[in-house]
Amino acid sequence: MKFHLSLATTLLLATEGLSRRTCGSDHPPVELIEKAILFRAMSKFKPGPNSRPVEEDPVPRTQVVPLHIHNVFVNQTRDQGYITHEDVQNQFKVLNDNFASTGVKFDLKTVTHTEDKAWAMASRGSISEINMKKALRRGGYADLNIYIRPLRSGLLGYCTFPTEVVKDSDKFFLDGCDVLFSSVPGGSATYYDEGKTATHEVGHWFGLFHTFQGGCSGGDFVDDTPAEGSATSGCPLGKDTCRGDMYPGEDPIHNYMDYSYDACMTEFTEGQRVRLYQMWDQYRLPQGSTNRTTTRTSMH
Ligand SMILES: [Zn+2]
Predict the structure, then answer these.
(1) Span of the secretion signal (predicted)?
(2) Which stretch of DSSP H or E encloses residue 110?
(3) Among 129, 194, 201, 270, which one carries the catalytic annotation?
(4) pLDDT digits (tens, 9 = 90+) for 207-240
(5) What are phi and psi of 112, to 5 degrees?
(6) Which of 57, 144, 218, 254 has the greatest number of C-beta atoms within 10 Å?
(7) What is the pLDDT of residues 67-89, one digit of tens each?
């Protein structure tokens, strides 16, 4: 016998019962992993975890990123995907606060609200998803588009990694981040209600991987995020899944690219900041159309 979840039940599952963070961006393309390995070799870091940059940047780099936030909802109530103007502003502020240490500053250019059940509930890779994004996506490849909506699949969010794209191809339109509506600041997603799901997902958009990717012997190819054998749930101080001389440092449970509760996530590392700009210069800057808002104060 087939069992169909009602829309109300599906939305309930999407907002509650998340025992751990669930992100759909857990498989970076092989080409991007190879690029990350190359960038790691090029970084001005001494090898080994917990290393610091050999030389500090003479002038900290900054980057303005045009931001377009699209709220897509089933109907205009808070439990059916709708978020208010204030919610959008709060999410925007959290993004800027969380990325401040990297020099990235988001410039909110567009806010849209769309009532469309099929789009709001579209699963990844569906016709509805591409239709929605062809209709709503704004700007070039250096513009960040975030779709805040019900996701149906039990995910808190997912995001595309940077890659080579042909303008106006499906891959171009799909570029951006999808974030569960209830994860915005003050939302109903317990433990994930401070807006840091968007921060985590946007980290992927910039080309950062999960800190636990590949386990102890894998990693995110960033030298100053200690090796981590498994995704973190909650905020377990002292968690140390990779031990021994090869793996100094406890798990980076406070890193935005782990799976910890929002309240536990507080940092990007210096190595992640450098990687973000390496990826930006490789993929988004050359394919963007936003030179007028680009600020480069130093070279890496
Ligand atoms: Zn993720």
Answers:
(1) 1-19
(2) strand 104-115
(3) 201
(4) 999 999 999 998 899 999 999 999 999 999 999 9
(5) -125, 150
(6) 144
(7) 999 999 999 999 999 999 999 99
Clarify whether 228 is annotated catalytic.
no
Residues 6+ apart with CB under 8 A from 81: 11, 71, 72, 73, 74, 75, 120, 149, 150, 181
- Output the CA 204–ligand 1 centroid distance in Å: 7
Whole-number Å distance, alpha carbon 26 to ligand 1 midpoint, is 6
Predicted local distance difference test score (pLDDT) of residue 116? 98
**Cα(277)–Cα(109) distance, integer angstroms:** 22
Q: Tell me how far apart the alpha carbons of residues 143 and 67 are, in angstroms, rounded to a whole number.
A: 6
pLDDT digits (tens, 9 = 90+) for 15-72: 445 678 899 998 999 999 999 999 998 876 555 454 445 445 667 899 999 999 999 9
The predicted structure's pLDDT at residue 11:
46
Å from CA of 113 to ligand 1 middle: 25
The rounded Å distance from CA 22 to ligand 1 centre is 7
Q: Which CATH superfamily is domain 62-208+279-293 in?
A: Collagenase (Catalytic Domain) (3.40.390.10)
